[in-house]
């Protein structure tokens, strides 16, 4: 697939791997028992990883039922179930570091990887919580690596009653939504009219969570 991502000038290494976590992870508690962790520029070699994934992942478009008609999902998708081989060893390394860092708190490993390709500013994800599986009734975590063009991830309390929070996710950043975030908050990546290159989002989730 043709992608026109202009890589950063500072990230010319081909050494594609995540950095350490530990004290580099910054936690922000949200209301209702939710929190988010941010680790800026976690994925080293993010330019090279972007190009590898853009070229090698079997991206596909989906259509979903919306009330009584079918609509195009406004992004390309590829899902790696727990038994699937991930499309790049850097993702195995990322999953393994996340599993070490969050093991005690999460109580089970991250197992699946959902990949999304936002081709430009018209691609988006609407307000939702990842509420299939454990996230509907219990605390869980969803860990997201963002590479490519920076996009905003918005968060708001479910059912209203609070300000919308905005996190600008940059090239290589890690964001983890935890605690009650999937059931007490919603998240979205809104469309933007700004000229915007492509972005890839990699989401690691525990078994059954979607
Ligand atoms: O693009 C992102 O980072 C968020 C994607 C998302 O929320 C989802 O796939 O459930
Ligand atoms: Fe989500």
TrEMBL record:
GO biological process, one term: DNA alkylation repair
A Pfam family that the UniProt record links to this protein: 2OG-FeII_Oxy_2
InterPro entries to which the protein is assigned, alphabetical: AlkB-like, AlkB-like_sf, ALKBH3, Oxoglu/Fe-dep_dioxygenase_dom
Fe2OG dioxygenase domain: residues covered: 109-208
Domain of life (superkingdom): Bacteria
Example of a GO MF term: dioxygenase activity
Gene3D superfamilies xref list: Alpha-ketoglutarate-dependent dioxygenase AlkB-like
Coiled coil: none
Signal peptide: none
Protein name as it appears in the record: Alkylated DNA repair protein
